[in-house]
Amino acid sequence: MLKLTVVKPIYHSLAVLVLIFVLLSQITACQVQLSPAPILIEETRLKKKIQRVRSANFSPDGKLIVTVSSDKTAQIWDISGKQLAILENLVQDILSAKFSPDGQYIITISWYGSAQIWDISGKQLAILRGGHKSKIRDANFSPDGQLIVTASSGETARLWNLSGELLRILQRPKNPIYKASFSPNGQYIVTKGNKTATIWDLQGRQLAVLQGHNQYILSANFSPDGQHIVTASQDGTARVWNLSGKQLSIFRKHRFSLFKRYLMYKEALWVKRSNANVIIASFSPDGQHILSIADDLTARVWNLFGKQLAVFKKHKTVINCATFSPDGQRIVTASSDGMIYLWELSGKLIALLQGHKGSVTSVSFSPDGQHILTVGDDGDARFWDVSDL
Question: Which tens digits make up the pLDDT trace of 352-369?
Answer without folding.
Answer: 998 899 999 999 999 999
